[in-house]
Amino acid sequence: MKKIFSFLLVIISICSLLLYGCSSNEQNSRQSEKLSIVTSIFPYYDFARNIVGDKADVKLLLSPGNEPHHYEPSPSDIVAIEECDIFIYNGGESDEWVENVLDSLENKNITVLKMTDYVSLLNEKNPDHTDGDEADEHIWTSVRNAEQLVKKISAVVTEKDNKNKSEYENNTNQYLLSLDELDKEFTDVVNNKKRDTVVFGDRFPFLYFMTDYGLNYECAFPGCSSETEPSLEVVTRLIDYVRDNNIPVVFHLEMSNGKIAQLIGDDTGAEILQFSSCHNITKDEFNNGEDYISVMKQNCSALKEALS
């Protein structure tokens, strides 16, 4: 059904582009000379807006508060991609819709960045820590990966809009300093840890993050699992692990119902805390100015409690 829906959206979008594409492109060129950037998910939107400041327009396709794994582009989203200068997407299971959309576009001057092409990928792990069949797509959860991705976006933006090169480079350097400081904060927490394993009563999209800091984990599901109800065996395993190892904190993901984590907490007395993947943020967080760095700092505080 998802493939059929994606195909129908592409057909609708092509019709929309035939009606509005050419005139809309010409009108936009007259109205604004700013570089136009469209991003599929929040991390790249946040990276791009920190790089460009007010010198370019940045659009986020995934609305705040929406679940990224179920996103399907609307016709207006596809028109936005058609009319942009740079399109940034992640790649992986959540972005399966992208290839069909790109094939349908008439504008061949768009620079397309598939961010999973610019870092080393790790195989997704099953809850028993054996390798899965797919590369883990959640590359941005690593602050060190984020630094590399910001540099790539900055280089492409500067190439596209060289007249604002100095400002883009200054903004990039300042943002990289903030990411470096964030990395140091996590490193400091890990260097002072009393334990080296964290527990997620939820999906686990943090393989890159945990690898950076040499941490171990126990979880209910892999990062892109479609499962929402764990087996009795999984719940029992996590409860036993938390109790046997005196684990003080059990994590749940952002925008998750947290039921599994709460079940484990009720049985063991462990505290329930959120650890955000930054895949997306809520509407309130967006309106209150939360960003990748502020959310990751909240993760840092939560991690400190979990490793104490």
TrEMBL record:
Keywords: Signal, Transport. The keyword Signal applies. Pfam families: ZnuA. It comes from the Bacteria. InterPro entries: AdhesinB, Bact_metal-bind_prot9, Lipoprotein_PsaA-like, ZnuA-like. The keyword Transport applies. Belongs to the bacterial solute-binding protein 9 family. This is Zinc ABC transporter substrate-binding protein. It comes from Ruminococcus bromii. The lineage of its organism: Bacteria, Bacillati, Bacillota, Clostridia, Eubacteriales.
